Structure formats: structure tokens, C-alpha cells
User: What shape does this take?
Amino acid sequence: MGISTAKTALRARDVFRRGGLLAKWHPRFEYRPGQLAMAEEVEAALAERRHLIVEAGTGTGKTLAYLFPVIASGKRVIVSTGTKALQEQLFNQDIPFIEERLGRELRVAYMKGRANYLCREKLYEAENRPILSGLEEIEDFAKIKAWEKETETGDRAELKTLPANSGAWHKVDARREMCAGSKCGLFEKCFITLMHQKAAEADVIIVNHHLFFADLALREDDFAQIIPDYQAVVFDEAHEIEEAAGQHFGVQISSYRFEELTRDVRQTAFQNEFGSKGIDTALDQLNLRSVQFFQVFDNLEGRRAFRERPVFLKRNSEAYEALIAGLALLEAQLKLVREKTDLVIPLERRAQELEAALRLVIEVDAPSYVYWMERRGRGVFLQATPIDIAEILAEKLFEQVPCVVLTSATLAVDGNFDFVKGRLGLTGPRELIVPGHFDYAKQALLYVPENLPDPRSEQFAARATDEILAVLSYSRGRAFVLFTSYAQMRRVYEAVEPRLDHPTFLQGTAPNSALLEDFKATPNAVLFATASFWQGVDVPGEQLSCVIIDKLPFAAPSDPIVEARIRAIRQAGGKPFDEFQVPEAVLALKQGFGRLIRSAQDRGVLVLLDNRVMKQRYGKVFLDSLPDYAFSTDIADVARFFDPPTVP
Assistant: This one.
């Protein structure tokens, strides 16, 4: 994207009012009072150096509502998105739209994590070294090699024909773990260098939440920053930032990281001819000790609290100390390699980081962190996560950045932002709730069956199966059936699928992106899925006319992070169910139901199979937090919605 120093002096009202510039620029422009109100609030927050939180319902046009004021502000602003897909939409669609209307190029750049970019050094090395395995990797490498000659960014998103799980890409990407930085002979031609140069010249830098908080955590340690300094941040899909921040202000160690280190050292030593008997011995020792250490953890799938770590350390001190010694031995052998320092430095650094992370997770006991472990397949993950990130974000973000704007379609609970502000440590912001732009009372029906048993009972799955089949017969498929657990999803799917006349898709049988594309392309399809499809998934039009949710999405209290947060609230004298569990579930339910109505033409039925929403006192909070849907407990209304009686 080209560079220009010119700024626009446009005010939000000039752009978004009736008969304003957007109306002149866009033949199908529809005046939206909420869009104008949001744009003026963003404009004011930037000018006054105040924080702002905005819930902007679906159809508000929130992207343009914050982009125009951001561009007009004259400040360097970071726009952080929940997904790389939204990041690419902003850069490749929304920014060009504004540039075309303004008649000039803007100083805009985007930044992604290093694994999204090609490393030219690795690519050129791979042409001369036998690192590829199998025909698929050889074919993928040929695509990458041809693309490298024409790409200006090195961003793999440009390479549409490359499979998402390409083994060849993993061997030539620009991961920090194998980067020599400024000591690399191709540093000046490096795509990472180019990304940083463009960002340094830009007024607006588009990133994603994980990169933003990775950068914020690095700044905390005074180690290195990824993103140039800025005066303001806009978080789009801001409901996701607590989880993203928690990951990056915590510590993670895994069996895979040890496997990757030994593999990369062995491969790099072989390719660059600095292998030795000492390095081979150190690698064999480290591999053996890593396997022995991670074998002491149980084989139960899923995640659980990692309690009584002093007892664990006492019982397993021999395996733990052997692993620490194995890392030290490898570091010592790498230091002996004098002639290849640019290749060895990143490997040494990784060994040092692994040792530091391992000591933090096993030895350090910080009351403000929850320690937990997870087994996924053959992998073991050990993690330390902040129980409450409010204090961290208050200190590192909200007190340091003059203006932070948080926006999403799901931030308010029962008409206010108290929950989100408390979770994130945000005090005294400007606030705005913009209702959705659609006529929900006409476009959507919320159906809650009265006669189903409690979702926690043994009878629920069988009765829910009958209800789902009845609803799908009226909707003629065209539905997402969303569950709060994989076990329930599989149980109901196995009961429904043989009795259903419509094509079905099940999460886990193919990559999520492939399932979504197949669903869109298959008439009358039904997709059975869990949390991955509760947000960030758009299927406008009749193809998705029904969303069925099995139960209110309360987080499992046995989850170690949830359990720790409940305990912390209780110890502080609070009421964790009312103050944490219910608001969290409300926002999750709003996200799930948000899949259905994505345009003014969409119509559909929302089904909640959990009638506790009508029977329990907390149900009112859920219902009052949802848009103003039409409501029924009679399945006959579902039938009439999909097949309204004809008027003679």
C-alpha cells in the first residue's frame, strides 16, 4: 500500500449523516443513526484522550464507524482484530474502499505473527539441502518458490493454493525460533524487516489480538517490542481480549517444544555442517530426558489443575533435574560452535527460554496465577495463567495508552458494561450501546420448549433429539446445532443423523474452514458443532435459517482457570455465580445467537433447548441481554414462521 503524508480533516458527521459523503459515495448507502453515533463517540474519545467502550449490534457498520475517525485523527492508531480473517478484510477491502473515496493513498500497514511470513534464507537453503519429505512437500515447495519471486509481502495468505497444514511451509516460515535477526545475510531483504519498516512509516497499523498482547508482554519484560509506539488502540471483537491477554501474560511449556528444539538443532547442524559427537550426545540425552519427564504426567485427555507442585517436584525431582541438566548440556555444546554464531544464537536462546519457562511453571508459586496441565493426544502442556488480568491491563494498557476503544456486538450484560469493565480493569470510559440495525421482532423467533427436562439430567439427550428433529423438519435443515460439550454433540448427532433426511456435517471430521465451505455449498445442510462455531462465522442468506443451542453456555466449573477465578471472587467476598458465571454465559449465548441474523434480508429461528432461562431467577438476565426477538414456547409458531399461512 502506498504512502502519503496527507491527512483528512473530515468530521464523522460529514461522512455518516443523511446526505453525507457516504450517501454520495455509495449508491446503496443506508443511513444508520447508530453508525453515526458510534463514529462521533470514537472521534470524541480520540480527541479527548479518553477510553471508550461500544457495543455495536450486527448491521451497525462499526468497521467504517471507527476507521474514518481513526484516519482523520492524525495519530498513530493500532487496530487489533480477533482474527486474521478480519485483519485481512480491513486491509484488503475496507481501507481500499476509503482510499478510493478519498482519492488518495493512506499510510496503513498490517502486521501478523512471524509464522505467517516466508523466510528467504530458509527458502534458499532448502534448494540446496535435502529437507523435504514426500511428494506433497515437494509440490508445495515449488509453489512457494515460484511465489517468492513475485510477492511483495511474503504473507502466506496470498498463496491461496497452499494447504493450511503444509509441511513445506513450516520448514521455510520466519518463526523467531530459527531467526538470526540482524546477523542474517538476508536481513535487508527479509519480509519481517519489510513488515517492520512499513509499520514504522504507517499512521494506522492493523494487527490481531494475539500479536498485540505478545508485544505488550514483551514491552513488560523490556526485552523487545514488535509494534511501533502508538497513541491509541481500537480493539475490534473486544470480547476476546481477556483470553488473548491471559495467554501472553502467562507461561506455557510443552513436550512439543522440546521435540521441536532437538529436531531443529539436529537439522540445522546437519545442513550447515557444524554437527559433532558432543552435539549428538546432548540431543540424544535431552530427547530421552524430555520423554522421561513428560511420562510422569497421567494420560487423561483434557486439562486439569496442576496442584501441589512442591509435592510433584519432590516425587519427580530426579526426572526434573535431569531435564534441566539436559538443556544446560545442549547450551554448552552450542557455545563451542564458533564459526556459525548466526545460526547457533537462536538455538541457544530457545534452550535458555525453555529452561526459564520450565522453572517458572514447576518451581515458582505465584498466588495470582493458576497452574494447570493439559494433555492433547500425545502432547503434554504445562501452563501458568493469570487468575485476573484486570490489574495487569490497567497498568500496562489503560494507564499507558491515552485512548483505547473497545467494540464488539457482545460486550453488555443486562444493558450495562460493568462486567467487562471489571474483568479488564477499565475505569471511567465513555460508553455507548448501539442496538442492532435489524428488525429482530420480525426477522427472528426465539423458541424455548417448555417440556424438556433439565439439561443436566440423563433424559435430556433423548428428549432433545426429538425436539431437534421436529425443528429441523420445519426449517428443512439449513441449521447449526451448537453444543457446549463434544460429548453431548456426539451423543445427539449419533441419535439424530440416522433419522434425518438432510445432509449432515460433524465438527472434527474435517478442518473447520472446510466444514463451513461444505455447509455453505450444500442445500438444506445441518452442521453439528461446538464452541468453534459460536463466533466469527458468517453464513448470510437462507442457507442458515436456524440456530439450535443445547443449553445455556456456562463454563465448566471444573476447568482450572474458571475454578480459580470462582475461588478468587468468593475469597474476596463476592458472588461468583452472579458476578462471573452468569455474565460470561450471557456473552457466549449472544455470540451463538449472533450467527443467525447477519443482514436485513435474513430470517430465522433461534432455539434454546434449556428452559432454565424461564424457570430460574438468572434467566431474566439472559433474556434482557438479547435483542428484541419474537418469543414463543409453542413449536407450532416455529412451523408458522417457516411456512406462514397464505393470505387469500
About this structure: Residues 12-107+202-248+389-434 form a domain with the Rossmann fold fold (CATH 3.40.50.300). The CA atoms of residues 478 and 544 lie 5 Å apart. The mean pLDDT is 90.
